[in-house]
Amino acid sequence: MDTYKTITSLRSVRQFDNAHPISDDALHHILQAGRMSGSSKNTQPWWFIAITDRETLTALSKCGDFAQHLAGAALAVAIVFDPTFYRGEFDSGRAAQNMMLAAWNDGIGSCIASMHREDAAKAALSVPTEYRLQHIISFGYPRNADQSIPAVKRQGRKPLAEIVLREKWGQK
Ligand SMILES: Cc1cc2nc3c(=O)[nH]c(=O)nc-3n(C[C@H](O)[C@H](O)[C@H](O)COP(=O)(O)O)c2cc1C
Questions:
Q1: What pLDDT score does 150 carry?
Q2: How many domains does the chain fold into?
Q3: Ligand 1 centre from 137 Cα, in Å?
Q4: Are 120 and 129 in contact (CB under 8 A)?
Q5: CATH of the domain at 140
Q6: Distance 53 CA to ligand 1 centre (A)
Q7: Residue 85 lies in a domain
Q8: The pTM is what?
Q9: pLDDT tens, residue by residue, 23-80
Q10: Which residues' Cβ are closer than 6 Å to ligand 1?
Q11: Residue 9 belongs to what H/E stretch?
């Protein structure tokens, strides 16, 4: 896929084909895309925990209100960041998007899971309490066309005319 097509066609996938595991090469590709992400002052304030153990995935799926898709993922990557680093949250978002795009370019779908019960998620992965674990990403080959969970309906996008301003606020 060309880069623009990969970016614009990326949509959340929440149901995965478990007969089709993610190879070590594909996993390496995903993690490498996260590693190469830019970060504020190049602090790279993140760790990526790659998870394939079904019991752990199921436990993590209970740590977020809309995290059920983790239970059926072929792979999940938890993004842990050090909050004492400047802009750690923004940096982690860049790494997350890069991993999702690299995966999609290889035909692998993904979806973010917010950890509403972060402490429980950190305990499940033995993450030190001083670090943050806000999001975990499910990965896997799509089972079929996306069937979003009811509370998080598949969204279109606002038109550019609604979100783009010229030169300053209030000017279209
Ligand atoms: C910060 C963030 C948190 C999200 N948390 C969840 C989540 O907990 N569960 C979920 O199913 N989707 C989650 N999503 C995915 C969004 O719901 C999804 O990207 C959005 O509805 C647009 O749909 P699309 O990705 O299919 O285009 C999250 C996305 C972001 C950026």
A1: 45
A2: 1
A3: 10
A4: no
A5: 3.40.109.10
A6: 23
A7: yes
A8: 0.94
A9: 999 999 999 999 999 999 999 999 999 999 999 999 999 999 999 999 999 999 999 9
A10: 11-12, 14, 64, 66-67, 69, 111-114, 149, 152, 154-155
A11: helix 3-9
